[in-house]
Design goal:
Blueprint (H helix, E strand, L loop, with lengths): L2 E5 L2 E3 L5 E8 L7 E7 L6 E6 L6 E3 L7 E6 L4 E6 L8 E9 L4 E4 L3 E5 L2
Parallel strand pairs: 2-11
Antiparallel strand pairs: 1-3, 3-8, 4-5, 4-9, 5-6, 7-8, 9-10, 9-11
Length: 118
Amino acid sequence: QVQLVESGGGLVQPGGSLRLSCAASGFTFSRYAINWYRQAVGKERELVAAITSLRRSTNYADSVKGRFTISVDNGENAVVLQMNTLQPEDTAVYYCNAKSGYYGTNYWGKGTLVTVSS
């Protein structure tokens, strides 16, 4: 059974940090690109950070470059999104996504809410 379970969301003050984790199971983890998306109220879902299959490279949205870091814990089949210097505009539900062109499959987690507010 495929599962992507996000954790680590919560309320943080502007300038603070949060560490999101996405625990993956039920599929060949290394064969999938792992992406973090977010969706704020009234806005479309947007790609925030990505790490390619076989972990060759990472990519970030311009709005989070230099503040967010995506990394993989292969021993735990987990992907971490370290978010620093958070701003109110980072408030959103953050979703973990696993996508494979090789297998032609695409999986989503249920999301975790991040609220940046004083």
